[in-house]
Amino acid sequence: MHVFVKIVAVIFFVTLITGCTDKRIIEEIAFINLMGLDLVNKEDYEKNRHLLVTASIPQIDPAAEAKRELIFTNAKSDKEAMLNLSRKTNRTIVSGKIKVILFGLDLAKNGLNENLDTFERDPIFGRQVKIVIANGLAHDVMKPEFAEKPRPSTYIDKLIEKETKMNSIPEALLFQFQRDVADDGKDPAAPMITYADNEVKIDGIALFQNDKYITKLEPDMSRYFFFLNGDFSAGAINLSFEEKGKESPVQFMYSALKNSRDIQVKVNKQEEIDVTLTVNIVGSALEYNGNMDLGKAEDQLYLEKKIEENIEKKSIEIIKTLQTNKVDSLGLGRYVRNKLAYEKWKSMDWQNEVYPNINIHVEVDAKIKDYGLRT
Amino acid sequence: MKEKIHPFHLGIILYMNQVGIGLFTMPRLVAETYGTNGWIALLGHYFIAAINILLIYLVFKWSKGQSIFESLEKVIPKFLLFPIYLFLIAQWSFLGVILARYYVQILQINNFQTTNAYPFIIIILILTFLLVMKGIYNISKVTTLLFFFVIWIVFLGFWLIPVWDAINFTTFIFKGSSENLIEGSINLYSSFLGYELILLFLPYLDTKRKNFTGVFFGHSLTLLIYIYTCIMCFGFYSFGQLLETLYPTLVLFEFIEFNFIERIDALVFPFFLSNIIVTTTIYFWSALEVSSRVLPMIKTKWLLIFLMVVATLATLKVDIIRAIEAWIYKLTILEISVAFGLPLLVLLVLFVGKIKNKKGTI
């Protein structure tokens, strides 16, 4: 027989016999979709490393009424939790389909490195797992089930996915989060969700210093964060500003945004660091209830100026928050690092001493691309 | 007359022999050994290997395509050569088996975690056996086929462009290394090894063709793939993260997701079986070539089975990643010595032979 035929035969045979070992039957497996990790009692955590681990598993048995199985346990790690959880369900628990890992606020404040380490080490977890911070206990966010919404795990996953696409929360996949933790010139940021008023909703951006949660940005500020964070296209922003002859602030809807950001770092002879963020935005004016005429070029220029002022003001507010909290979520350190010699960069304490005191300027250039279908 | 290996096939054999599991750890290894932008140092490795290949080219030129064994045996008595032959047989058989084991070990991190490793190793050895028995000309053809079977994986890198960021490279060159320079360089150099076996291909090359253009093509293709992989990883990971990731290239594939398939890393790694089969095949073929010199009366089929069984049994206890890596490190040091020592020895012998001939004519 020709050698090639033999090789094909062996490969074919090998492919077939792979089904004979390490079998997994889908009906007998409980795929965890969403996992929550909480620190309930700080003293207990410090002494025994006890975490509250909650797992949400889709229910596929037609006899069951609920759409999912919610099981939880106290354990020292997510691996021990798996063993404990296994005693609470009739199916074999697997964690390979986890889409979202939800960390409680207290655990996030305590630092996530220890927990993320096991997720990174275990090959069963994909790097595309989303890291989300719950404002409160992750368990509380996972517990409610809404009749009119899909099962909570799917709901949270899709909610995060959609909002990320719209650029109102940062994408924090396990891989990206770890990349920023390991980078000495950038700190991670993650989406935050909360359960309040009988709803599970986005609650802004959680800002970290290394792996520890420090503070958050409110949802209405997140859009401005994105102008500073990088290039994007998609999303809208509602601006309100004072105008002569109008008693209440004027509303202006700036949508179909296209943003490009540039960072310039200057280091002078006294080794003072000066960072300028240039933000170029192009968008459509779709709602405006002020006195200007959107059809006139000079009025458009006036409005563009207003937009620029508005965004600059809010941006500086954000940068102040970041600097006072010593969180470099925009990754300015990476740009500063590129301007310095290695020894200089390594000898300075960027996060705690340098970053809070550098000069950061924001220059916004906004353009109204079009103004809808009305004159 | 026997069919000769085409220079293009020769290049592909070299490429397939060089590129293997090393590709999966390389970005971390260069970062550990040389620090930031350490991938630039791969050029140094490339040139050292290129000088070594030039030595082999000289052997080819001087001996006019004669087998190195014939050259050696003309000058050195056979009983003195026997220990060298035995060493080479052991070295190459062990390398063949250990590399297959290393591949299976890493494969099992992701797939078939609890299955016994032996079925996989035995399958690799069976495929190797079938290939080796068909001779080098057929091996070269099959290798070319297997090359096209895996090379498409390179294009998967394009899916990483959205998350790839040049800022992760940093502007620092060779800063922040954490590994021993010598140990790291040796480990990295193992990813370029494989070219030394071209010494055994010499009698199968057509002296009229530009064989070494093919060899340098293969060698350069290897470098190109290595640098491409490193550039992908250095832009994908932050430097600190790269140092923490054991198999950066493997994790890179973890990140690629299609609508119809997730976790293609579990799919991509098995494709590299092609590279492993070629590597194991070439090493066993080489060991067999030497064995036929020592025991010309025994059928090659039985010799090969004997080599495979002995090498597998001898490495029976080498079944954890730590032990395998320690073996590979030691075998790499020996192999580097072979890569430089053997062509130098042959050159010396050819030189002595020439002088003898001259004296004879006077």
Describe this structure in words.
Chain B: Belongs to the amino acid-polyamine-organocation (APC) superfamily. Spore germination protein (SGP) (TC 2.A.3.9) family. Chain B: Keywords: Germination, Membrane, Transmembrane, Transmembrane helix, Transport. Chain B: The chain crosses the membrane at residues 7-26, 38-60, 80-104, 116-133, 145-164, 184-204, 216-239, 267-290, 302-321, 327-352. Chain B: It is a multi-pass membrane protein. The complex is a heterodimer of chains A (375) and B (362). Chain A is α/β, with parallel strands linked by helices. Chain A has two domains: 22-217, no CATH class; 220-375, 2-Layer Sandwich (GMP Synthetase, Chain A, domain 3). In chain A, 35% of the residues lie in helices and 31% in strands. Chain A has helices spanning 3-17, 42-48, 78-86, 105-110, 113-121, 138-142, 152-165, 174-182, 219-229, 297-324, 332-337, 342-347, 350-354; strands at residues 29-31, 34-38, 51-58, 68-75, 92-94, 100-104, 130-134, 189-196, 199-209, 212-217, 232-233, 237-241, 250-267, 273-288, 359-370. In chain A, the strands form three sheets. Chain A has an eight-stranded mixed β-sheet with strand order 4-3-2-6-7-8-9-10, sandwiched between helices. In chain A, strands 11, 12, 13, 14 and 15 form a five-stranded mixed β-sheet that branches. In chain A, β12 (237-241) and β13 (250-267) form a beta hairpin. In chain A, α9 packs across α10 (297-324). The longest helix of chain A is centred in the last third of the chain and has 28 residues, at 297-324. Chain A starts with a helix and ends in a 5-residue tail after the last strand. Chain B is mostly helical. Chain B has one domain: Amino acid/polyamine transporter I. Helix content of chain B is 71%, strand content 0%. Chain A binds chain B through residues 3-4, 6-7, 10, 14, 18, 21-22, 120, 123, 126-128, 175-176, 178-184, 186, 331, 334-335, 337-339, 342, and chain B through 36, 109-115, 123, 126-127, 130-131, 133-134, 138, 142, 145, 163, 167-168, 170-172, 175-176, 237-241, 243-244, 251, 254-255, 257, 262-263.
